[in-house]
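User: Need the bound-state model for adenosine-5'-triphosphate:
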Amino acid sequence: MGDEDWEAEIIKPHISSYVPVFEKDRYSSGANGDTFNRTPASSSEMGDGSSRRDHFMRSGFASGRSLGNRDPGESNKRENTSTVGGFGVGKSFGNRGFSNNKFEEGDSSGFWRGYQDGNDSEALGSSRRGGRGSFRGCRGGFGRGSPNSDYEQDEGTQRSGGIFGSRRSALSGAGNGDTFQSRSGGGSGRGGYKGLNEEVITGSGKNSWKSEAEGGESGDTQGPKVTYIPPPPPEDEDSIFAHYQTGINFDKYDTILVEVSGHDPPPAILTFEEANLCQTLNNNIAKAGYTKLTPVQKYSIPIIQGGRDLMACAQTGSGKTAAFLLPILAHMMRDGITASRFKELQEPECIIVAPTRELINQIYLEARKFSFGTCVRAVVTYGGTQLGHSIRQIVQGCNILCATPGRLMDVIGKEKIGLRQVKYLVLDEADRMLDMGFGPEMKKLISCPGMPSKEQRQTLMFSATFPEEIQRLAGEFLKSNYLFVAVGQVGGACRDVQQTILQVGQYSKREKLVEILRNIGDERTMVFVETKKKADFIATFLCQEKISTTSIHGDREQREREQALGDFRCGKCPVLVATSVAARGLDIENVQHVINFDLPSTIDEYVHRIGRTGRCGNTGRAISFFDLESDSQLAQPLVKVLSDAQQDVPAWLEEIAFSTYGPGFSGNARGNVFASVDTRKNYHGKSSLNTAGFSSTQAPNPVDDESWD
Ligand SMILES: Nc1ncnc2c1ncn2[C@@H]1O[C@H](COP(=O)(O)OP(=O)(O)OP(=O)(O)O)[C@@H](O)[C@H]1O
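Assistant: Bound-state model below.
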């Protein structure tokens, strides 16, 4: 197959209407079938659906030779002959890559090689459209608003009004085509705004995951109607407070060194009682199974309660969400904040942003849990869902708005959200929110009319990784005397994850993966790959190997993504193949293994990915395939992450690390190193202490802060 053929394939819209072998057809009987207008007769849906299926059949399973040799009319023929949701059923591909439910290695390797030959770029930007992706789609609420709302219509047709009418053009740059960088591209293509109601995307070399973050609409005029309304989350108390157990290493958190820098930090607290929270909140905390604070909570809660801005860095799975939610809610409850229904303009006291739909929804569920039984109301909104639905939720009362950036700007633009009352602005995964993908959107947010200045609001940033340059950018958002809390090594991996790096070449990866998964059995495993296309390919391959698998990535429909995560969570599909869209923040019980089928381009990304296991004191395992041909640039930071986390470092990896860059290499490529401390070098005072918590050293006068800005 020539590259051109492959390219011709790859730019086709919609590649991933993929339902694994062991899943039922969900299109016809989705949980939310009554609200999801997947009308087969609709030209956009039908056309899209058929081309996706066609495309998938061509690209995912066909031999290299056959790719790209179809005439466009074939998609219709195939639509007529293949059942919706039939992907992964071997028979569907009998005359392509599959025969009688078997994967034809010979043919597929042709494809595989073509795929690997520099053509696995996700250069799909221009052809993407909306309506994709969300986890569970759980929405809370006090019921639905009027179904006759103006906002029932396609989000794509609602763009003209509002104060951000020109947002897209301002941000779209050269369009989306340059935002999906090939793994081998190594470019620094700056992304544009991805499209309607979606987060900003960008690409930087192999770091094409940025485009994955939302998988969304392709523009005002191109995208089909976004009608998806996710089912509301369960309202019963047991479901709201469902949680998993802390692990055997939970108490070891106390031994981690914590460094607080900045002027005059308040002392850490040691217990929930010391936080002096109101009774309802304490009850909710108890019902959530929390009995003991994690280190990031011990330090962050009093800092936030003290009205200080905060940048907090703590390892994956160590309770950062509650670290910001609890003090914010405590404050709101103490002030007697009450949601006010049916106000056309809602003015939340707190805005929380996160980079992916799944993550923001998870944060919302946590906020709903901790505010249970109070008058404080949290609402979530994110792209790929019907804007009208979001607005109906918002107008019923909104004290805490959890949103992805693109959708947040939309609801502000629609003048449904006013910013004047904002006391708290929280950036979860803050390094991601400030990088060149989301940074412009965040800057817009803080300059929106009505948004209190940084002096007037409290800005809180949390992540497990904080590259130095991002810390510097953060200064624009934070008061100069913000505090920096570092729990353990900034950007370090969670020590409860046992990390293994295996040298595996491209062409041996699938075999190795199957071998590992067969040994693992039914234990929940996330398999990370670099591209959306490969996610589908590997997921289907595993299904053919009778390993029950599903997949999540930015090109899957939102309904499909929800279904995939649901099936993974409940164990129905114990293997989830994912792109980096699932790398950050997701807190899924019992994920015992993470496999990096492809290593990511940055070490930060690696840290987040493996952090999907080993959470909250539980142990986990991460196995990464290191391909000498493509992963050498990661050798040195990997060695550092492994040794910092007290993991075995393979001799061969050490050798590569030092032969590639030499011992003096300090790694100044973006993401290849992580900051070890607060980058405000002017601080002389710092504290290093363990989380049993004793007072920290005084920092110098905050005036010193100005000099690093
Ligand atoms: N004090 C606590 N006691 C018991 N469980 C806790 C406590 N704090 C948090 N948890 C639980 O630990 C899990 C991980 O928390 P959370 O998702 O907030 O981690 P995180 O630090 O934000 O991780 P990531 O960096 O991956 O986003 C969640 O299931 C949460 O409910």
